[in-house]
Specification:
This protein has about 190 residues and is α/β, with parallel strands linked by helices. About 40% of the residues lie in helices and about 15% in strands.
């Protein structure tokens, strides 16, 4: 029996009126075209009552850790604020180490003229430190407020769909390779 391949889509914004809602709706709608990921788990930090401090013995941290730990791969949907990613996203990433290890991470970004790519470049550095593999190909939206409606319908989608197809093909390859590697030898068992 085949074990389901689990993909977690993580919101990178917690702001009221966030564009992230539109981008995630678009992404989740398009992910239906990729049955190689049997389970898509959408993780919104606003759905967790995380403690303000680094209080690790907390039921909401355990609940988030469980969801991240079950994922075989991740797609981070991130805005770019001040040439970087959000504090809310950094907080979620920094709470954990093991759920990211030996897993692939892809990015869908958005922002002004750069389309959020500066945030993605910084996230690559962070995930390298966590022993995750980032996918080189990404999807990026410059001025998404002009391209995506409230339901996540995208104006002129052809470029974004080509980029998504390429990103998912590579994410799937890395997911399969790393699921196999982790099943043969858990990443945590590798001596430092």
């Amino acid at each position: 029996m085949k074990t389901p391949t689990r993909l977690a889509v993580i919101y990178g914004s917690t702001r009221e009126g966030r564009i992230c809602d539109r981008v995630v709706k678009w992404l989740v709608h398009e992910l239906v075209r990729f049955p190689q990921f049997d389970v898509v788990d959408v993780i919104d930090p606003r759905d967790f009552a995380l403690p303000a401090g680094r209080e690790m013995a907390h039921p909401e941290i355990d609940r988030l850790a469980g969801r991240l730990g079950m994922a075989d791969a991740f797609i981070i949907v991130t805005p770019e604020y001040n040439h970087s990613f959000t504090a809310a996203l950094k907080s979620i990433i920094d709470l954990f180490f093991e759920p990211w290890q030996g897993k692939p991470v892809a990015f869908v970004s958005y922002g002004g003229i750069s389309g959020g790519l500066r945030a993605v470049e910084q996230l690559r550095l962070v995930f390298a430190e966590l022993h995750a593999v980032t996918i080189r190909d990404s999807v990026s939206f410059a001025a998404p407020w002009d391209r995506l409606d409230a339901a996540g319908r995208l104006d002129n989608p052809s470029d974004a769909l080509r980029a998504l197809d390429r990103m998912i093909a590579r994410l799937e390859w890395w997911t399969r390779a790393l699921v196999t590697a982790r099943s043969e030898r858990p990443y945590a068992d590798i001596a430092a």
